[in-house]
């Protein structure tokens, strides 16, 4: 087992057939002489071969030519969408046999583990764009099953912008940066995107999701995933059941706020990538449960929407989600290019027991993914790349092509007599482990027309809006105002507002008021008043603060004992406390009783990179912090972003509502200045002086962390 950088700890040690397969392809750092590609040992790679010390370089220098040529060819085209991504390996574990629904082997047995590779992504931005832009997140899972690879290529939102794949190039041309100036990077706040969407009302439901906080996740580990389309489960005897797939994060669904996301994009453009990587390296393996919504074939048309329409979800109140297994990601890739970049997903990579529906978006995707890999990965042999290789045996008559890695012998055609007609075909009779398409009767005229059952573009957008908590509604309005406020063309703004009147008149009016558009008349479509609790993030918080990151602000004179006690108490709940100070190194205790190691110097980090902030105890430390503009900014930013804020004994001076205007006025005795519980605003926790102070503080602070945000707290400090 490799142990170099990027190889996670215990997760790498479990039994894992995919990992064993990858090991054969790993090249560990050589402890030997440098060679050329041909294995010839090299004496010097720093100087090219030249005529005299100051003379021209010789063409004869095969070493320089090889080195430069390889370098010149190191880049491949990035993905046309979802270019920016991060990935990890892990496993899926089935909870029970689903043999009554599907013959898929990986769902056939309780406890059966299947290796997986999951790549998360943003959609709009290029490979080097920031993680925390407002965008849909890709959630693509490759299951290396014993019956071949199954790819579930989903997103963190359950619907999509368009209904028919033939519109995808139009949509992507509109969402990508403007063609003349290649702006903006990573976001949708520009004219072509809103021009397209305002003219394409089928995008309205997805726009509601994209303008909600779902588009600015706190972490890739705290997002739901959805297969989006209706697929089919198929049993061994050919019976079908429609199925929608849901991934549910164990850590709950949590988001940043928009101001925070924008600052994060500058402070740490790799925020999500780093978070995923560090969680896995640290043994906090992210976990999701896989759920399914099942619809019997005969109930296909029993909804007030079409289940083949990818702009619709099936409300969980109508069809509950049945949980069928869990997925754990416990191993980071070792080489970003080889694994994350070369991973090739394809919606048509299905295994026996899983099949398609006639969703026209899915049908088109089934063409596009294979097609795109041919140009991106340079030919038809990309499934031989280590990350893409199935663990199932591969036997076929495909030959040759760029990058062929296999030395095939014997025949490559069927039928043949020279190799006993091998590899032989399984035949049409149903056999275990052999893919057979679901048999459906199809009858109709050749027609280029959308079904009438796809024509209601607003009811579910309204359902989503109605299901939001007040603060979620506010965020949606603010997001529309931000995005449309950046649209130069006023007619586009107006057209979009007009569309929103069909969702909810209050929403349309609130958006209009912010972007200089006249508040529209109430139009024909009245809000139907229905809602679905499952759609609100308010109902999806974990109730467990595990893996959150807390900043403990401190200075010399800190109360080391209470700081260390807090670190250890929160660690028991998998919460990390990092000590931040003006300088790196360590801090001296005010009582001369020891030192507190500093995790990071304040200038190297930022408030937005933490879930919460605590001001350490100790009067001298508090006095220094209260006078420090960087500390005040840190706390104020956390406050503005609705985060839990805490203070250990004495530290409350630093919290702006309680601290003195003139820090010089601080007395050495902190007790008299400690605010009482009734003074405190939501999400503010202050330790009471005394022996149990830190324990009680830790309990209350953990509860505040689990609540994630306090959107009702006044955003501005008074
Ligand atoms: Fe797509 C990549 C998800 C519609 C064509 N798509 C891609 C990825 C994800 C999705 C997660 C990144 C995979 C990876 O990590 O490598 N796409 C979706 C979802 C859709 C969807 C959930 C709607 C339900 N996509 C869609 C349509 C088309 C495509 C309708 C074309 C007809 N998607 C592509 C692509 C990409 C891609 C151009 C770019 C890179 C790649 O495939 O491998 O083929």
From TrEMBL:
Catalysed reaction equations from the record = 2 H2O2 = O2 + 2 H2O
Query: Pfam families under this entry?
Result: Catalase, Catalase-rel, Catalase_C
Q: Which SUPFAM superfamilies match?
A: Class I glutamine amidotransferase-like (SSF52317), Heme-dependent catalase-like (SSF56634)
Q: Which cofactor does it need?
A: heme
Q: Where are the transmembrane segments?
A: none
Where is the sequence biased in composition, kind Polar residues?
408-422, 667-679
Biased composition range(s): Basic and acidic residues: 12-21
* EC numbers on record: 1.11.1.6
Q: Which residues form the Catalase core domain?
A: 35-422
Record keyword Metal-binding present: yes
Classify the source by domain of life.
Bacteria
**Span of the signal peptide:** none
| GO MF annotation list | catalase activity
Q: Which UniProt keywords apply?
A: Heme, Hydrogen peroxide, Iron, Metal-binding, Oxidoreductase, Peroxidase
Task: Report the Gene3D superfamilies cross-referenced here.
Answer: 1.20.1370.20, 3.40.50.880, Catalase core domain
Q: Where is this region: Disordered?
A: 1-21, 408-430, 659-679
| Its job | Decomposes hydrogen peroxide into water and oxygen; serves to protect cells from the toxic effects of hydrogen peroxide.
The similarity annotation says: Belongs to the catalase family. HPII subfamily.
What is the name attached to this protein's record?
Answer: Catalase
Q: Which organism is it from?
A: Catenulispora pinistramenti
Query: According to the entry, what is the taxonomic lineage of the organism?
Result: Bacteria, Bacillati, Actinomycetota, Actinomycetes, Catenulisporales
């Amino acid at each position: 087992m490799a142990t170099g950088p990027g190889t996670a700890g215990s997760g790498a040690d479990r039994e894992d057939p995919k990992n064993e397969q990858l090991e054969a392809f790993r090249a560990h750092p050589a402890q030997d002489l440098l060679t050329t590609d041909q294995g010839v040992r090299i004496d010097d790679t720093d100087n090219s071969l030249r005529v005299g010390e100051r003379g021209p370089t010789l063409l004869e220098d095969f070493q320089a030519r090889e080195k430069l040529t390889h370098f010149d060819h190191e880049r491949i085209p990035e993905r046309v969408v979802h270019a920016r991504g991060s990935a990890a390996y892990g496993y899926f574990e089935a909870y029970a046999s689903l043999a009554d629904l599907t013959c898929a082997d990986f769902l056939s047995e309780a406890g059966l583990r299947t290796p997986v590779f999951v790549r998360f992504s943003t959609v709009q931005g290029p490979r080097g764009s920031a993680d925390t832009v407002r965008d849909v997140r890709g959630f693509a899972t490759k299951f290396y099953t014993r019956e071949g690879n199954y790819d579930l290529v989903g997103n963190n939102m359950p619907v999509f912008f368009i209904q028919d794949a033939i519109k995808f190039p139009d949509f992507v041309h509109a969402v990508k940066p403007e063609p003349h100036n290649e702006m903006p990077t990573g976001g949708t706040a520009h004219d072509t995107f809103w021009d397209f969407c305002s003219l394409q009302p089928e995008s309205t439901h997805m726009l509601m999701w994209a303008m909600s906080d779902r588009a600015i996740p706190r972490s890739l580990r705290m997002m739901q995933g959805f297969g989006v389309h209706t697929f089919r489960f198929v049993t061994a005897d050919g019976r079908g059941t429609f199925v929608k797939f849901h991934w549910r994060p164990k850590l709950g669904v949590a988001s940043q706020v928009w101001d925070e996301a924008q600052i994060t994009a500058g402070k740490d453009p790799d925020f999500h990538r780093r978070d995923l990587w560090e969680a896995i390296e640290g043994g906090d393996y992210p976990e999701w449960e896989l759920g399914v919504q099942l619809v019997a074939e005969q109930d296909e048309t029993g909804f007030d929407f079409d289940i083949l329409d990818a702009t619709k979800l099936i409300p969980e109140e109508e069809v509950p989600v049945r949980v069928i297994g869990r997925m754990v990601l416990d191993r980071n890739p070792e080489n970003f290019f080889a694994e994350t970049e070369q991973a090739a997903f394809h919606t048509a990579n299905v295994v026996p027991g899983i099949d398609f529906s006639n969703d026209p978006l899915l049908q088109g995707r089934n063409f596009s993914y294979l097609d795109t890999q041919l140009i991106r990965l340079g030919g038809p042999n990309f499934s031989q790349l280590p990350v893409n290789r199935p663990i199932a045996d591969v036997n076929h008559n495909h030959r040759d092509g760029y990058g062929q890695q296999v030395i095939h012998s014997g025949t490559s055609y069927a039928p043949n007599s020279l190799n006993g007609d091998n590899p032989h075909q399984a035949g049409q009779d149903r056999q275990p482990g052999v893919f057979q398409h679901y048999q459906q009767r199809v009858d109709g005229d050749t027609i280029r027309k959308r079904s009438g059952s796809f024509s209601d573009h607003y009811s579910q957008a309204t359902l989503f809006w109605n299901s939001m908590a007040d603060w979620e509604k506010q965020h949606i309005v603010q997001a529309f105002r931000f995005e449309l406020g950046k649209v130069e063309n006023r007619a586009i703004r107006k057209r979009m507002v007009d569309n929103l009147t069909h969702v909810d008149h209050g929403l349309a009016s609130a958006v209009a008021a912010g972007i200089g558009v006249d508040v529209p008349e109430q139009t024909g479509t009245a809000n139907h008043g229905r809602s679905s609790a499952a759609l609100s993030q308010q109902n999806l918080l974990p109730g467990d603060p595990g893996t959150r990151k807390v900043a403990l602000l401190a200075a010399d004179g800190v109360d080391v004992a209470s700081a260390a006690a807090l670190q250890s108490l929160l660690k028991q709940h998998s919460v990390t406390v990092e000590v931040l100070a003006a300088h790196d190194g360590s801090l001296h205790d005010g009582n001369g009783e020891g030192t507190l190691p500093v995790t990071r110097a304040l200038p190297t980090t930022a408030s937005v990179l933490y879930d919460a902030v605590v001001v350490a105890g100790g009067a001298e430390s508090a006095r220094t912090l209260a006078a420090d503009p960087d500390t005040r900014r840190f706390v104020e930013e956390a406050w503005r972003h609705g985060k839990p804020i805490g203070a250990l004994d004495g530290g409350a001076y630093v919290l702006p509502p309680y601290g003195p205007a003139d820090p010089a006025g601080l007395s050495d005795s902190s007790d008299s200045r400690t605010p009482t519980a009734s003074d405190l605003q939501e999400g503010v926790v202050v330790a009471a002086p005394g022996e149990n102070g830190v324990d009680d503080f830790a309990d209350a602070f953990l509860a505040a962390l689990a609540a994630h945000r306090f959107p009702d707290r006044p955003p501005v400090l008074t």
